[in-house]
Design a protein that fits this description.
alpha/beta, 5-stranded mixed beta sheet
Length: about 325
């Protein structure tokens, strides 16, 4: 990611003028509608995008439009002008996807992080008939029956695939991946008993856990999650240090003026911190975050290293 600060010895006065101009640019922004690119209607990214769009429109006094582009949001953002008027809500596949297959964008070079919007831990769920009640018991069963258990994923390199491969590597077990066209289909297959295990997101799995159609073993956060009260963590019950967090971030185009990125961050974080927005996200199975741009950039860098190793070690390749 390119930084936008330039310090030249002997030119501090000029630097102050430049900073003042940048601040003015940020305060004068925006003067026209903003577009938020996101996934298909009805998904978690779309849900967050619409809440943010409504809040931003109210606070900025400008129309904020949601543009549903399916899985092509990154390509759309990379083509937009670097003026802060185009945003993207997307998850980790935005920066881990290019590790698996070629994309038309570079996630570090072409995007400017704005904030981590929401997050939630993966949750390990199994079919109720599987004779395990904990992560230790799941590992023991998988070791006793190598290749006999199947886990479901909703796409190569996605949030239900990479955590399972990390789990397999850390636990030293062989659980076979069955890849479905989407996470929803994988959950249906798990409920039907076609597969035995899945690393699911809280939003889609919690209703089935409460109804007894799925059995939750552990959350993949390092600390217990309020989204999953009473559920232990994978790290504390079998695999120390195991962590898999699903998040949605907001981005704008790379090389957007720093003042505009800062203004967007301030306004979006203010929206995310509203009690009604927090409550609606929590009810949907995620927690609001509202981080600095630097925190999202650091998460991207860390994920690229972490999941890049998992992808390489498991020999994962795109379709």
């Amino acid at each position: 990611m390119r930084m936008h600060w330039l310090l030249i010895p002997g030119m501090l006065a000029t630097g102050a003028v430049v900073f003042g101009a940048g601040a003015a640019v940020g305060q004068d922004f925006p003067v026209k509608p903003i577009r938020i690119v996101t996934s298909a209607p009805g998904g978690s990214s779309d849900f967050t995008a619409r809440l943010v769009a409504q809040g931003l429109s109210e606070s900025l006094g400008q129309q904020v439009l949601v543009d549903n582009r399916g899985n092509f949001g990154g390509e759309q953002l990379a083509k937009a002008p670097a003026d802060g008027y185009t945003l993207l809500v997307d998850g980790a596949s935005l920066w881990t996807g290019p590790l698996i297959q070629k994309t038309s964008y570079d996630p570090v070079r072409d995007f400017s992080p704005v904030t981590i919007a929401v997050s939630a831990p993966s949750v390990i769920v199994v079919h109720p008939s599987l004779p395990v009640k904990s992560i230790k018991e799941l590992i023991a069963l998988a070791r006793a029956r190598p290749g006999a258990l199947n886990y479901g994923s909703g796409g190569i390199g996605g949030a239900s695939h990479l955590p399972a491969e990390l789990f397999k590597s850390m636990a030293g077990v062989n659980i076979v991946n069955v890849n479905y066209k989407g996470t929803g289909q994988a959950v249906v297959a798990l409920i039907a008993g076609e597969i035995q295990v899945m690393f699911a997101n809280t939003a889609i799995s919690t209703p089935h856990i409460r109804a007894g159609r799925l059995k939750a073993l552990a959350a993949a956060s390092l600390q217990p999650s309020p989204l999953l009260p009473g559920l232990p963590t994978v790290s504390a019950t079998g695999l120390p240090g195991f962590e898999s967090i699903i998040l949605q971030g907001l981005f704008t185009v790379g090389n957007t003026p720093t003042a505009r990125v800062s203004r967007l961050n301030q306004e979006i974080v203010r929206v995310l911190n509203r009690p009604d927005i927090k409550d609606r996200h929590f009810a949907a199975g995620v927690e609001t975050v509202g981080s600095t741009p630097e925190a999202l950039a650091a998460t991207m860098r860390s994920d690229i290293i972490k999941w890049g190793k998992v992808i390489k070690d498991a020999g994962i390749k795109g379709d």
